[in-house]
User: Fold this.
Amino acid sequence: MIAPPRQRWLILAHAFNMDGRAASQTITDKLPHLRHAGIDVVVLSGVSGTKDSLVEHHQLWPAGPAGLRFELRHVLRRRFGSGGLYRTLMTLASVCLLPGMLVEKLLRPVESSWSWWLSAYVKGRTLARQQPFDLIYSTGGAFAAHLAGRALKKTTGTPWLAEVHDPMVMPGTVPATAQQKMQAEVERLICTDADVAIWFTEQALASARQRHPQLGERGKMMLPGIDQPFQSLPPYQPGAKFVVGHFGSLSATRHLGPVITALEDLQLRRPDLVAATELHVTGGPLDAVSSARVAISPVRDCVRHLGRIEADPVTGRSGREQILYRMRTVDVLLLLHGEEPICSEYIPSKLYEYLWMQRPILGIVHANPQMAEILRSQGHVAVFSGGQGGLNGELAEALEQLFGRWQTQGLPDNGRSSPYTTQAAAGQLLGWVRQMAGEGAQ
Assistant:
């Protein structure tokens, strides 16, 4: 992986060095590979993450009052915790910012981070005047990074690479709200003006091309992956219970409902299986749908909600690192995709972490053949939420088969290394930049 010498890139990433945030991991994990390739990196980010000590990193407050309040909430909580002092300071800040926030929401009723693009543009323009950049690399996450990237390209003439994490337009819909229209407009700007534009699934790229044919071959697909998280895997020790572990956030469209229903079906014919099973849920709070289902379910005693894992000051391990260790302790890793149309163009970043764990994965996949093929090609189980046999029946059957293997022969590690690495993704990105530079020189 070799890039031209003395390359200097400006990276625009609103979420950066934020423990546990996928939008952060996607870019922070690439930096060692970019530096190894001879890239001098300058990062502009929001203020919610930690200051990076290895690269030039500027943390910027947004220009608008709604964004200021949002960022201040994270900064104060990190500094003072969530006690009385934090609540007092946030109340004072909210009162002071309220008039501006009301005006902002009337004029620009979109996500609060939108105004960060102004701060990033001003700082990026100042840095470019001091020493020009070879590439502007916007990544997100928040669409503000892409707005800043485009503005900097227009004023400096620097090539612009845009990396789109989640699809900006919901498949099969026409943007109606101010937020949806803004996201659609940002997608149009990327497809029109970016020198390289990257999406994280084949279908997301295909949909963007269909909406904006001008994108052409400047559009690319890249699986972000993650690098090997352990030098040597922590040992897996089976216990007395068959433990199915889910790691990550839940929502009204990505919930435990299908798993609870499958366990209820199994309770009727395999009570021994359910009695020996525990469903461990690690992440944020249970969503409303999951909470309601668990509360009235006859299998509710199987569910163990372990909550969010924060950084451990004793061991020095971040929340992300602790979760990786916990993934090695379960018998089966449960991957919930969701139930929205956007799932056809989205692969959870958790998948790439799971693949390194060498534990069996049971994935519920919604309308995404690419995601199902990744799982199955690595020897794991993918159940389509729209399967002909019905999700609940197929899911119950998959759980029963995995339980049978655990009970009779155990579920040993599969011994596979994941081919989906950040190093490979960074190599693709550098190749596209070199190709872009070569074409520009012609």
About this structure: The CA atoms of residues 309 and 323 lie 7 Å apart. The radius of gyration is 23 Å.
